[in-house]
Specification:
2 helices; mainly beta; 26 strands; 4% helix
Length: 391
């Protein structure tokens, strides 16, 4: 459920050190906090809602809720912030607060923010956002977070989590998620032939309906662009696409190698995942059924090339459709052979643009087609994007 309130999240400037904070009011019902699922507002607390337990890609049955607080603007750019908050985590439950920053015209990756401790940003920014994640066993506990504030600071070493010139690409083992009718880590209810992926860390988890964390997944002949809407397979804190210095767990593994792959192939961590389960395959990504069967035309689990688009710069567009997918074709025409698909809200890489068949879509009527991969094109009429150089 979405939480609501009538008074705005308070923002205030404190004179001596110009501190801008955002906090939840102690009275009155709150107005909407963006992109929330299964949380409710209780006084000055954000508390886990009443939705039943679900099993997502990580195959851990639990109740979970997520709330993205309204972004905060500072008076000047800062390289680090301090988040302050209190939590209640009864009976084996957990509560986490993450932070991200607006850097190079896009949101950075989410980073866990320990209360009262400076958290480095990947670059100087005057806009940040907090995210609250509360999780609990299938019955009982209701964890909460209260009195969340964030303020700038310079008392921290620079972050090693930087935006690269080109996004990281790695070859990983892909499995089919399935679970139609289930609920993902961001609150999305999985439908038949769905289009999204799961990665084993919340750092690159997009909110329900958003594609600001998207991947390009390719076989030898087809590609899919999909939003990251679930967490798994196997692990939940294995951001293997990050360098060792900033990787949340398994810092001795090389960048780009999932822990599950190391456990399965090399006996790493005794062949077990972070929950102590014996790893039965080397999966580093889960694919929803539509991505697996339709976009990539896979019939069995397989090795694929995955590009984690938010980790690098480059031309981007956002698929602007209300449901389903956008066909990727081998020419700038709707008669071209389908060589992949892009899911709702997914970001796509754009190498260049060319003219082709005129198409009418959500962005109007246009004969411009965007090349998103060598030999692969999408109609700009269905993609929110700027203008790019000619192919």
């Amino acid at each position: 459920m979405r939480i609501t309130r009538r008074t705005k999240l308070a923002a205030c400037l404190v004179t001596a050190v110009t501190l801008l904070t955002i906090s939840l009011p102690s009275s009155a019902a709150p107005e909407p906090i963006s992109n929330s699922s299964n949380v409710r507002y209780d006084g000055n607390r954000i508390i886990l809602g009443d939705a039943p337990a679900a099993i997502g890609s990580a195959e851990i049955k639990q109740r979970s809720g997520l709330a993205e607080l309204t972004p905060v603007r500072f008076a000047a750019p800062t390289s680090a912030v301090v988040a302050n908050y209190s939590t209640g985590t009864p009976d084996g439950s957990s509560a986490e607060v993450d932070v991200r920053a607006w850097v190079n015209d896009r949101w950075s990756e989410w980073t866990p923010a320990t209360a009262g401790t400076p958290t480095a940003l990947p670059g100087a920014s005057d806009q940040v956002q907090l995210r609250i994640i509360v999780s609990a066993p299938p019955t009982g506990a209701q964890p909460w977070v209260a009195d969340a504030t964030v303020l700038p600071t310079d008392k921290v070493a620079p972050s090693g989590m930087a935006i690269q010139a080109a996004p990281l690409k790695s070859r990983v083992f892909a499995t089919r998620e399935g679970l139609v009718g289930g609920t993902t880590a961001n609150g999305h209810v999985i439908v038949n032939r769905d289009h999204f992926v799961a990665l084993p860390s919340r750092r690159g988890l997009a909110s329900n309906g958003s594609g600001n964390y998207s991947v390009k997944v390719c076989t030898a002949s087809r590609c899919a662009f999909e939003p990251v809407w679930d967490v798994g397979p196997w692990n939940t804190k294995d951001d293997y696409w990050n360098p060792s210095a900033t990787r949340e767990m398994w810092k001795d593994l090389p960048q780009g190698k999932p822990e599950a792959q190391a456990a399965y192939q090399d006996g790493y961590n005794g062949g077990k995942d972070q929950f102590g389960r014996t790893v039965a395959n080397p999966a580093g990504i889960d694919l929803a059924d539509g991505t697996f069967w339709d976009a990539l035309a896979l019939t069995n689990n397989a090795w694929v090339d995955v590009t984690y688009l938010w980790t690098g710069d480059g031309g981007r567009g956002t698929v602007s459709i209300t449901s389903g997918y956008l066909n990727i074709r081998n020419s700038a025409s709707s008669t071209g052979a389908v060589v992949g698909m892009a899911g709702k809200s997914a970001q796509v890489t754009v190498e260049c643009q060319t003219t082709g068949q005129s198409v009418t879509g959500s962005q109007g009527t246009s004969n411009v087609w965007l090349r998103v991969h060598p030999g692969m094109y999408v109609a700009k009429a269905w993609v929110s994007a700027g203008t790019f150089g000619a192919c």
